[in-house]
Amino acid sequence: MCSELITALDQNATESFAKAGTVLFRCGDSVSAVYLVRRGRLALEWASGNRLIQLDFAGPGRIVGLPAALNGTYSLTASAVEDTELAFIPSQWVIELLEGDWRLSLAATRMVSREVVRMRSMLRTSFAINQDGLDVQAKRSTETCRVKP
């Protein structure tokens, strides 16, 4: 089902290219598009104070920004690690696609759910956690990028 979603997104996408170092979007930005990585690699980073914490990489076949299309705001920063070929899909088109096909909507829900689990795991390993929960530094870091309600 996820491959069907990738195919549907890619069929109606505009080809885009990001040179190494280009920032596609920043944590807290209003959503404009979802991206499918065709070639190259993106870094997915979380804002913490004045620095970015690298959480993951997105390579060929990976959809980036799908959660933002659903909630309106990017929760991570995405930048090209190397010259990267992308499929650019306007977020409004993604919503219309998902509203029109329950199977693709279910595939998107599953994809977002897996991403939430993966990101939580990465955040857990990025911060020291004691028996009482997040340490003071981690608590401050979680307040850095507030997603608009």
Biggest beta-sheet profile: 4 strands, antiparallel
What is the number of helical segments per DSSP (H or I, 4+ residues)? 5
Classify the helix fraction into a percent range: 25-40%
User: Rg from C-alpha positions?
Assistant: 16 Å
Shape: globular
- Looking at how many chains there are and whether they match, the oligomeric state comes to single chain
Highest CATH level, the class: Mainly Beta
Low-confidence stretches: 128-149
What's the rounded overall pLDDT mean?
A: 83
SSE string: HEEEEEEHEEHHEEH
Ends distance = 30 Å
The CATH homologous superfamily is called: Jelly Rolls
Derived from helix and strand composition plus strand pairing, the structural class reads: alpha+beta
CATH architecture: Sandwich
CATH fold naming: Jelly Rolls
